Amino acid sequence: MSLSKYREKRHAERTPEPFGKAVPTGGPSTGGIFVIQKHAARRLHYDFRLEMEGVLRSWAVPKGPSLNPGDKHLAVAVEDHPLEYGDFEGVIPEGNYGAGAVIVWDLGVWVPLEDPYEGLEKGKLLFELRGYKLHGRWTLIKLKKTPKEWLLIKERS
Ligand code: MN
Q: How far is the CA of 38 from the centre of ligand 1 (A)?
């Protein structure tokens, strides 16, 4: 887990986004906060973020989460974000990475239902969300042929 990719893509003096005071900690993850930000960039998408080891692991979900267990929505893994990003709302100015408006769409805690480290290695995370909008059990499954691509799926119960 590292914020170096995040920082490489941004200029602190040109965007209101946080750069992260927290030093990624390491250590076991027992879940933590989750946040979904609606991001009106060149293409609208939803950024799905799970706190792990002192950073926010992040996926861009073009269609956003679906409450229908029959839907498998693409979730593209993107760079880790600082924890402080979790309550960021604002407008990233034109000419900057991800230019456009960001709002917090949902927020809460996530609880892993299986070991999240094994899950990241195997490419399958099973967890519960306790947010304002989203609840219940969800899975993120990594596609084998295109490793940055995952699917976000609502479990039936
Ligand atoms: Mn985004």
A: 8
In this prediction the pTM is 0.90
What are the pLDDT digits (tens) for 1-30?
678 899 899 998 899 998 876 555 555 567
DSSP class of residue 85 equals G
Bridge-partner residues for 126, per DSSP? 139
User: From the CA of 126, how far away is ligand 1's center (Å)?
Assistant: 23
Give me ligand 1 centre to Cα 104, in Å: 11
